[in-house]
Design brief:
- A hairpin with a 2-residue loop joins strand 3 and strand 4.
- The longest helix has 21 residues.
- The protein is an alpha+beta fold and 386 residues long.
C-alpha cells in the first residue's frame, strides 16, 4: 500500500492529547491518573514556593474528582502583559503556557512528565478553576478541555483571601480507572514537604464510607527530618545523630541540601532528588555526594593515623555501610537523562557536590573530633558494626 501526504494526519493541541493520552501522562491506568493529580498539585506548589512558602491542600472527593487549593497570590485568568507567568486561562488551554519555563531552582517537579494544567484539563470530563485575588472569586468551567463560559466573578473571596483552586474529574471515556491510591499520593506529598521547608501539604480522602481521612505534612527541619524518619524505619531504637548542611553553589547554578547519618542496618539507604523529583536511577548529584563523603572520611582517617600509608582508601562500599542520606539539589536548569527524568546528568554537578560535601563534612569532623573519631574508626576499622 502506498502512502502520500494526503494520508498524514497532524494532531495538535487538545486533539493530540485526547487521542494519545499515554504520551502525556504515562498511561490510562492508575499511573496516569496519579500524574494528573501531580500536574495540578505541582502548579500549586510552585506558586506557593515562589512567594516563599504556604499551603497546598489536595482533596479526593466522594464523586471521583480531585480538588487542589493553594493560598498563593492567586493567578488572574487573563494575561497581565507585564512579562509575568501566563494567565490561568492560558495555562488551561495552551500546552506552552501550562508547562512554562523552568524558572529557577525554586521550581519543584512533582511528576515525571510535568505537563501542567493543559493536559489535566484536556483529559478531564469536567474541570472548574477558581482564582481568588483582589477580594473577589473568579470562576471558569471546562468540559473535555473546552471552556463552557468565559471567566466570571462569583462573589467575594473568603478564607485566606487569595489563591487558586482547580477541581477536575478525569474523563471516564479515557481512563481505565478513576480510583486514586491515597497511600501513593500521600507518600509523594510527604516527600515534597520534606524537601521544601516552607511548604505545608495536606491530603484528604472523602471517599471512605466511615468518614474522611486526612494527613498533613510540614517539616521545619527539611532533609534533616527526612533522614531521621528514614533512620527510624530501621527500628534501631536509638535516635540518630544527623549531620545536615545546605550550600548555595553558583558554579552549578543551584543549591545543595544534604543530610546523613550512620545508623542501623549495614545496607546503604541513599536517596537523591533534583528539584524535588526523586531520581530513581541516581545521577551526578549522588556520584558527587559519594565522592565527597569518601574524601572527607579518608582525609580525617589519614590525618589522625587511622589509615597508614600502606592502607588503601576505604571504598564506597565500606563508607556506605549503615549510611542513611538524602541529597537534594535544586538547579536553574536541571539536565535530566531520559524522558521520565529518572537520572540526573551534568558533569559540573558532580564536581560541585563533591567539593561541597567534602568541605562541609570535613568541617563537622573538625568541630566534633570525638564523635568524628568514633564514626570514622567504625568505618575504616570495624565494618558491619551497627
Amino acid at each position: 500500500m502506498l502512502y502520500d501526504a494526503a494520508d498524514i494526519e497532524v494532531l495538535e493541541g487538545l486533539a493530540a492529547v485526547r487521542r494519545r493520552p499515554g504520551m502525556w501522562v504515562g498511561s490510562t491506568g492508575e499511573r496516569g491518573l496519579h500524574q494528573l493529580v501531580l500536574d495540578v498539585a505541582g502548579r500549586a506548589v510552585n506558586e506557593v514556593l515562589a512567594r516563599g512558602g504556604g499551603r497546598v491542600d489536595v482533596t479526593l472527593t466522594a464523586d471521583g474528582g480531585v480538588r487542589v487549593t493553594d493560598d498563593a497570590a492567586g493567578v488572574p485568568f487573563e494575561d497581565t502583559g507585564d512579562g509575568a507567568a501566563p494567565g490561568l486561562e492560558a495555562q488551561l488551554t495552551s500546552l506552552r503556557a501550562a508547562t512554562g519555563p523552568e524558572r529557577g531552582p525554586h521550581i519543584a517537579f512533582l511528576g515525571h512528565f510535568d505537563s501542567g494544567l493543559f493536559v489535566a484539563n484536556a483529559l478531564s470530563g469536567r474541570l472548574t478553576a477558581e482564582a481568588r485575588y483582589g477580594g473577589v472569586r473568579h470562576v471558569q468551567e471546562y468540559v473535555r478541555g473546552v471552556a463552557a463560559d468565559p471567566p466570571a466573578a462569583a462573589g467575594p473571596a473568603t478564607g485566606s483571601g487569595s489563591g487558586t483552586t482547580v477541581s477536575f474529574w478525569p474523563d471516564t471515556g479515557i481512563f481505565e480507572t478513576t480510583r486514586y491510591s491515597f497511600v501513593v499520593l500521600a507518600e509523594r506529598f510527604r516527600q515534597v514537604a520534606f524537601l521544601n521547608r516552607g511548604l505545608e501539604m495536606s491530603l484528604t480522602d472523602e471517599r471512605p464510607a466511615g468518614g474522611p481521612r486526612k494527613v498533613r505534612f510540614r517539616f521545619p527541619g527539611g532533609v534533616s527530618d527526612f533522614v531521621a524518619a528514614l533512620a527510624a524505619e530501621t527500628g534501631a531504637g536509638v535516635d540518630p545523630e544527623v549531620i545536615a548542611f545546605e550550600r548555595e553553589i553558583p558554579r552549578m547554578a543551584g543549591t545543595l541540601e544534604a543530610a546523613l547519618t550512620w545508623h542501623g542496618p549495614a545496607e546503604e539507604r541513599l536517596r537523591g532528588f533534583a528539584n524535588s523529583l526523586f531520581t530513581r536511577e541516581g545521577g551526578t548529584h549522588l556520584d558527587g555526594f559519594r565522592d565527597g563523603v569518601a574524601g572527607a572520611v579518608t582525609d580525617w582517617a589519614r590525618g589522625r593515623g587511622l589509615l597508614t600509608a600502606r592502607d588503601a582508601d576505604p571504598g564506597a562500599e565500606r563508607i556506605g555501610e549503615g549510611l542513611t542520606a538524602i541529597v537534594s539539589v535544586k538547579l536553574e536548569q536541571p539536565e535530566f537523562l531520559g524522558a521520565v527524568r529518572g537520572l540526573l546528568g551534568g558533569a559540573e554537578v558532580r564536581v560541585c557536590v563533591a567539593e561541597a560535601v567534602r568541605e562541609q563534612l570535613g568541617g563537622w569532623f573538625a568541630e566534633h573530633p570525638d564523635r568524628a573519631a568514633a564514626l570514622v574508626d567504625r568505618i575504616v576499622r570495624h565494618p558491619h558494626t551497627p
